[in-house]
Amino acid sequence: MSIETVVLAVGTEDEERAKRLANEIIAVAEPADAEVVLTHVFDGSEFDGIREKLGVERGTEGSTPDAVAERHSTTRALSKALSEAGVRHSVRGAVGDLADEVVETADSLDADRVVVGGRRRSPTGKAVFGSVAQEVMLSAPCPVTFVHETAS
């Protein structure tokens, strides 16, 4: 199966694992010349707070979820890494439930792969999937790659 479209789920917590996510997505997308869709999902209050922090007024062109996602530090870092690696990509923003929005995006794009990050939670270092990652894995219309952050 060839990979043409990859959805990378991005949330505010992914700032700490942005480098690992970038490396993984480059490893998946680059050999296949796939298009990566960075999908940054905000909850409602988070979106309002970030928009306010950016100085963007409601109802203006720069206040859309796509525009705010493009300006978010985590998405910018991932976009920069993908650009430097020559990986085609775009940014989508959404406001709502992270798992639902990622699955909906993957479904609407007929994605070939979803990449989602998460944390290690046990002292033995075994990755335990959080509710968002688990929901995406169970509901996505395509294979899902889970990327955990490194132990501190």
Automatic annotation (TrEMBL):
SUPFAM superfamilies: Adenine nucleotide alpha hydrolases-like. Residues 10-148 form the UspA domain. Signal peptide: none annotated. PANTHER family: STRESS RESPONSE PROTEIN NHAX, UNIVERSAL STRESS PROTEIN UP12. Belongs to the universal stress protein A family. This is UspA domain protein.
